[in-house]
Every structure is written in structure tokens, then in C-alpha cells.
Write a structure and sequence with these properties.
Length: 787
């Protein structure tokens, strides 16, 4: 690869026994080792002392909330958060020389790890039609080129405006404002691929697509279900909250296909018992469920509750709550009583005794919370599964009161805030009406395209321009080969980014890289130093203010890029600057939106948000209070914005995915040393995997049945009704404690196996946790891809 960091490949794979506890002193050591490998001691200290503090910046690594001011630790971050912010604060830089040294084809052949390790992007770059290299371009020309392409489209609906959850509230609001003033609702985002099933189910049943609980509720619950998620890797600070639950006498039931170290035992690195002691056992009961079996599990629990009420009338169900605040109970109950135990045991892989033990814990608990993540959402029946979770909570009145409720745990810093700000292809009419009243134009009402439909539109020639604001679209989406072919059909692709990723190597006829400020960078505009805001998983809105000198003097904020004509200066822009400048170029002064004012002073953006978005009244004053404020959730006032005005019991048919003989059901997952699509190392410490990512975890009994052995080299081939062969090549088999009949492997390497049309009913979320695959042994002389 002509210079830079050597791409590590897969040749050093070693496997040891999985860990039985998480964090502790090793987590501190690994975080510091990574940080000091990226930048200086001083810069590391500056970031770690400011991350998740009231006057500092929000960790981009996940959306778990911080404790209230005065209760949070001075080191209020986890191992992965420290790695993530060190990754952004790296001293490594990518300049024009780098792009002169490497062709786009070379970048496309590199691993995700290698691309990320090259450092921060520092100046705008363009790939001209027919070129095989990126070359430098000034901000004026870059934004002018993008604006000209947008103006030249036959319809605004030929443009796609994608965001990831790294985007803060202010640029998210401005991006959707620009897109709708331009004339489209094509606002796909990363929510489409993760928690869209949650939003669909919760909007239908409770009237709002958000969780209803706070950190205090987690602490005070009698019983917390942690379902289909791995807090130790994806949001480690959740473990400290669960530890508090346990210390107050609460219980935890973990439901997951893989045993996860953090849910077995947690050693809090900021407490003596976590460093030199045994730590805290988190899960009181662990249910090793088959992928997709959660619907059947909650149907069984609901049947047991109904039968317990039959035996002891008036003592099990909350009849008063059901009568006053719900509808649909009778239809639900009739359906629930049809639950077949043979189906339940087949779908879950659990014993009836295990399920009845959980039932006993439920009967002994007055306050219950169910937390979940991708293990529930990324199945064809993801929406019915979450509706069944709501049924379970409604039966005993565990909605809308302290210590109880629904808790979808978001994995990306501001993904919930982006949706609140209007980043949604199907935003409610009331939001569009508020935009029209505030800004004097009529937004389009036709629903736009989500992420999966955006890929289809590019593939079919209906979308011709792609603008990605943060994120790594081609690696986050399903059916990698199909996605990349679709992206390459575009007339122009543009990415607003802080670091290099594979999306930059998958180019339209013309391609732009527009570098932006990071979350930890100082953002100084004409109105002085600026801050932005984010919303966490529990609807807390607070400030985030960068403290580091920007990676380059040629960066723009996202806001600046979207608001007005770029001046002669080629300094680095924030996302705000990028968005506002682009809007000025494309729209001019029609409609009359003060883009330049928004760029100069972000308070002016927040003033408009306060008048458009419910719950943000007096935004500028309230968010400046230490810790910010919590958005109201009508569910906690027993107000349900459903057609009936009540919470809705639903009927959900039993379903399960069955793999043909000789096949397995594959779930894709993260390694521990990974943030979304980007690995920080080639290891997965808690699962005992070191020096490689192209591994597939399979139960020993399945290996015997398939005629395979531990460490055999195999191709993974997905089986789908369209007959197209999707293949992920050269994976090492690792014998592991997975549920029989299932397997697990890391994404994004296995996203190629997820068919574009294999999506959840209603939400259109890719079914990344239920891919039917076969394992084909290959020769040891086969080359092992680096990426």
C-alpha cells in the first residue's frame, strides 16, 4: 500500500477462552494504550477530563445518558468512549499528498481498520469524472460543484441526504430544513438500520417512538430485562447503572444468544471493588436464546401471566390500569392463549423450567423495565417482538410510572436527537406545518426514502446524487456488493466526514470529500465560540462544546457548509457551516431563511428549534443549565398519542426462522474493539479473539454435524429466495458457545450476506440478526482478504 500504516491482515489469529467479567484495570490500560498511540499525553488528558462533563463535549461513542451534575464521576467515560474520542483527537493527518500516493482502487482494497488509522481529513478533495485519484479542491469550488449538481437534477427527489447519529441537533435541524426547502423528504439515516423497528412498534402501541425511562428508573427497578444487547461492548456505562440497580436490591435477567462478559460480572474501574475486588455479578439469570426467539419468549411469559391471573383473580394483572389506560386487551388475550409450548421451546431453545423461573421473578417484582437493542430489531418479526414486549409491560401496569417502562438503548450518540430534529423520511404532518409557519414555505408532504429504499432508488436510476453527513453508508448498509454498485451509478457522491472510510472509495461519476470539525474540536464562528446540543437515549438534552484545536485550518462546520456562500478563506468548516453555505448556494434567498445568521451564531438556530419542535421552548436558556433538561414524554403522564388515546395491546402471530438442514442462522455483531463500522484493533478481548476479524463462531455440535473442525477455513454463503449467491470469503471457524443451529460473525465484513430485500415487516430494517447461511470449506492456500 505505498506508505502509511501496514494493513495487518488476518494471519495472526489466536483464540483463548472467553472472559467471564468485563472492564476493571485492563479496560483502563487498554484505553490509555490506544489513546497514547494516537496522540500526546497532554491532548489525551485534555480530552478525557472534558468528555461527558457539563462544560465539555458529549462522547460520540454511544447514547447512554450521564448521571445528573454533581453525581457524575470526573472520569465519566468507558473504555470504548476513551478509545473513540482518542480516535477523533488523533494527531495523524491526511493531506493531499496521501491522495496523490494512493489510487481510489487501492483505498477500496484496504481494510476498514487501515483506512481509519490514517488520521483526520484536513482539506476538501474531489474525484473528477474518469479520474483514479482524489485531488485538492477549494471550498468555493467544492460547494459550487455540489450546488450545481443539486440544481441540475430533474427533481429534488433524485437527491438523498443521509445522516449518522454523530450529527448534533443544530446541524441536523438545518439539514432537514435545507432538504425540505429544496423540495424532498429523502432523509435516510442510521436509525433506519437499527431502531426503526422500535420506533414503529412504540408509536403504534404507546404513541411515541422513544423510551419512557430515566437513569433513576433503572436504579429503582425491581427487575430489569436486558434483551438482545451487549452493554459491555456497545454502551459499557450501562453496566454501572445496572450495578446500582443490583446494589439497591433489583434483579437483572439477561436474554442473548451469546454469553457476554459484562452481563456476567462487572468490575467498575472507578471503584476499589472493581479494581482489586470481585466486582458485581450483573445477571441473576441468563437465558441463552436462539436468534429471533424473543417474540416466543415474551408470548410465553404473557401466557403464564394470564394463567396466573386465572388461578388468582385480581392479584396478578393490573386490571385497573388495563381498564383505564389501554384497549385491545380481549383480542390480545385470546391470541395469547393460543401460544403453543412446543413452538416456544423450539423457537427459543430454552427449557420450560428456565422460562417459568423468569415468570416467578416477574411475579415477585412490582417495577419492571425491558431494555433492548439490535438483537430484537433486526429480524423480519422485529416490530411484532417489540409490540409483544409492550404487551408484557402493560399487563402489570409497568408503563408510565417510576421504576418501570420501555428502554430501547440507542447505540449512536445523537441518533435519537436527529429524529427529534426532523431527520425522518416520514415526519408527521404537524412537524411540516410548524416548519411552514416558522419559515414561510410549504414543505413537501410526500414520504421520502429510507436507507434501504435509497439503495434501491440509486440502483434503479431514480436517485442520482448522494450526500452523506457523517457516517460510513456503504459499510453500515446491507448487501454490500449491491449497495456499492448502486452508489457508483450516481452522478455525484459527497461525504461530510472527519476521517477516511470505505464510503470515500465507492464513488459516483464525481465524488467529494468535505472534511468537518469533530465533536471534540473548538468551533469558532463570527458570533464567537459556539456549542451544540445532543439528546441521549433517555431524552436528556444537553450541550456539547469542543475543547481541542481543529485538525486543520481548512475545516468547516456542518452548519457553515449548509448556510451561505463560502468566503475566500479555506479554513476547516463545521457541519453547521457546510450545511448553511450549501443552502445559500442552492436556494439563494428563496425561501427567506437567514442561513448566514444561523452560521454566525448557533443560538439563532436554537431559537427557531424552540418554535418548531415540541418540548424545546426556551431552548437557549434551559440547555445552558448544568446537565440541560429532559424532554417530556406523554407516556409518563398516562397520555398516549394513539388514535384511541390509550395504550394498545396487539395481536402478534408466532413466527420463527428455520434454517434448512446443513445451514445455520447467522447474526452479525460488533467486536469489543470496534465502534460501529470501524475496528480500533483486530481483537475482541472479551470473546477471546485476537489478531483477526474474519472469524465465524459456531457451536461444537454444529461443527460435528457439518463435518467441520475448529479453525477450518470456510466461505460463508447466504441463502435467500432471490437465488443470488452472496459470499463472504475466507473465515476461520471458532468453536464457541452459540445456541445450536446458529452462528455469529462481525460486521461490516458480513454485511455482504444480508440481502437488500430481507427486511423487517413495517420498519424496513435489514434483518442482520437472522441470515441463513451455509459454511463451505475452502483450501488453506486461498488468499485471505485484508478487509
Amino acid at each position: 500500500m505505498g506508505g502509511g500504516i501496514e494493513d495487518p491482515g488476518e494471519e495472526n489469529l489466536s483464540v483463548t477462552a472467553p472472559k467471564t467479567w468485563a472492564t476493571g484495570a485492563p479496560a483502563v490500560a487498554h484505553a490509555l494504550q490506544y489513546a497514547l498511540g494516537q496522540t500526546t499525553v497532554r491532548r489525551t488528558a485534555l480530552t478525557l477530563l472534558n468528555i461527558n462533563q457539563t462544560k465539555g463535549f458529549d462522547c460520540p461513542g454511544c447514547a447512554w445518558p450521564e448521571p445528573a451534575p454533581g453525581k457524575r464521576h470526573k472520569n465519566e467515560y468507558c473504555e470504548n468512549g476513551a478509545k473513540h474520542i482518542a480516535d477523533e483527537a488523533t494527531s495523524r493527518r491526511i493531506t493531499a499528498d496521501f491522495f496523490r500516493q494512493h489510487t481510489i482502487a487501492e483505498l477500496g482494497a484496504a481494510s476498514d481498520y487501515w483506512l481509519n488509522q490514517q488520521g483526520r481529513l484536513t482539506e476538501p478533495m474531489v474525484k473528477r469524472p474518469g479520474a483514479d485519484h482524489y485531488e485538492p479542491i477549494g471550498w468555493d469550488e467544492a460547494l459550487g460543484l455540489l450546488a450545481a449538481e443539486l440544481r441540475a437534477l430533474d427533481s429534488p427527489d433524485e437527491a438523498l441526504f443521509y445522516t449518522s447519529g454523530r450529527l448534533a441537533n443544530e446541524p441536523a435541524f438545518l439539514l432537514q430544513l435545507f432538504a425540505r426547502a429544496y423540495g424532498t423528504n429523502n432523509l435516510p439515516d442510521c436509525s433506519n438500520m437499527c431502531h426503526e423497528s422500535s420506533g414503529s412498534a412504540l408509536n403504534e402501541t404507546l404513541g411515541i417512538g422513544k423510551g419512557s425511562v430515566s437513569l433513576d428508573d433503572i436504579y429503582d427497578a425491581d427487575l430489569v430485562f436486558v434483551v438482545g444487547q451487549n452493554p459491555g461492548t456497545n454502551h459499557p456505562r450501562m453496566l454501572s447503572a445496572l450495578e446500582e440497580t443490583k446494589l439497591r436490591g433489583g434483579k437483572v435477567v439477561a436474554v442473548n444468544p451469546l454469553p457476554e462478559a459484562g452481563l456476567l460480572r462487572f468490575k467498575h474501574p472507578q471503584k476499589a471493588r472493581g479494581v482489586i475486588g470481585r466486582g458485581t455479578a450483573i445477571a441473576d439469570q441468563f437465558l441463552q436464546i436462539r436468534p429471533g426467539g424473543d417474540l416466543a419468549l415474551f408470548q410465553a411469559l404473557n401466557l403464564l401471566l394470564l394463567e396466573a391471573e386465572d388461578e388468582r383473580p385480581g392479584t396478578v394483572l393490573d386490571r385497573e390500569f388495563i381498564a383505564a389506560h389501554t384497549n385491545g386487551f380481549d383480542d390480545f388475550a385470546a391470541q395469547a392463549r393460543k401460544t403453543d409450548w412446543a413452538d416456544v421451546l423450539d423457537a427459543t431453545g430454552l427449557s420450560r423450567e428456565e422460562i417459568e423461573e423468569v415468570h416467578a421473578r416477574v411475579l415477585g417484582s412490582k417495577k419492571i423495565i425491558v431494555c433492548w437493542a439490535m438483537g430484537l430489531t433486526q429480524h423480519k418479526h422485529g416490530v411484532p417482538t417489540i409490540r409483544e414486549v409492550v404487551n408484557f409491560l402493560l399487563l402489570r401496569g409497568n408503563i408510565g410510572r417510576p421504576g418501570a417502562g420501555v428502554c430501547p438503548v440507542r447505540g449512536h450518540s445523537n441518533v435519537q436527537g436527529d429524529r427529534t430534529m426532523g431527520i425522518w423520511e416520514r415526519v408527521p404532518q404537524a412537524f411540516l406545518d410548524a416548519l411552514e409557519g416558522e419559515f414561510g414555505f410549504t414543505p413537501p408532504t410526500r414520504h421520502g426514502l429510507d436507507s434501504v429504499d435509497s439503495i434501491r432508488a440509486m440502483r434503479d436510476g431514480r436517485a442520482k446524487l448522494f450526500l452523506g453527513v457523517a457516517g460510513n453508508f456503504v459499510r453500515a448498509t446491507p448487501d454490500s456488493d449491491a449497495t456499492e454498485r448502486a452508489m457508483r451509478t450516481c452522478r455525484l457522491t459527497a461525504h461530510i466526514s472527519t476521517k477516511l472510510n470505505r464510503s470515500h472509495a465507492v464513488c459516483g461519476e464525481t465524488a467529494l470529500i468535505l472534511p468537518t470539525l469533530g465533536r471534540s474540536d473548538r468551533d469558532v464562528q463570527a458570533g464567537g465560540e459556539q456549542f451544540m446540543t445532543v439528546e441521549d437515549s433517555m431524552s436528556e438534552v444537553h450541550t456539547t462544546r469542543g475543547r481541542l484545536a481543529p485538525a486543520s485550518d481548512r475545516l468547516l462546520s456542518e452548519v457553515s457548509i449548509i448556510t451561505r456562500l463560502a468566503p475566500a478563506s479555506d479554513r476547516l468548516l463545521s457541519e453547521v457551516s457546510i450545511i448553511t453555505r450549501l443552502a445559500r448556494l442552492v436556494l439563494g434567498d428563496q425561501p427567506a431563511i437567514p442561513w448566514a445568521e444561523f452560521e454566525a451564531d448557533y443560538d439563532t438556530v436554537r431559537d427557531r428549534i424552540a418554535r418548531v419542535v415540541p418540548g424545546f421552548d426556551d431552548f437557549n436558556t434551559r440547555v445552558r443549565q448544568p446537565g440541560g433538561f429532559r424532554l417530556p414524554n406523554p407516556v409518563n403522564r398516562m397520555t398516549f398519542n394513539t388514535p384511541s388515546g390509550k395504550a394498545v395491546f396487539t395481536r402478534n402471530d408466532f413466527t420463527m426462522l428455520r434454517a434448512p438442514k446443513g445451514h445455520l442462522i447467522l447474526q452479525t455483531l460488533r467486536s469489543h474493539d470496534q465502534w460501529n463500522t470501524i475496528p480500533y484493533a483486530m481483537d475482541d478481548r472479551y470473546r477471546g479473539i485476537k489478531g483477526g476479524r474474519r472469524v465465524v463462531l459456531v457451536h461444537p455440535s454444529d461443527l460435528r454435524e457439518l463435518g467441520l473442525a475448529d479453525h477450518d477455513l470456510v466461505d460463508l454463503v447466504s441463502v435467500w429466495q432471490d437465488g443470488v449467491e452472496r459470499r463472504a470469503e475466507a473465515f476461520r471457524v471458532v468453536a464457541y458457545s452459540t445456541p445450536p443451529g446458529s452462528a455469529a460473525a462481525y460486521y461490516p465484513e458480513t454485511n455482504v450476506l444480508v440481502p437488500l430485500d430481507s427486511v423487517a415487516d413495517i420498519s424496513n430494517t435489514p434483518t442482520s440478526k437472522s441470515v441463513v447461511v451455509r459454511l463451505e470449506r475452502v483450501s488453506e492456500v486461498a488468499p485471505v482478504p485484508a478487509g
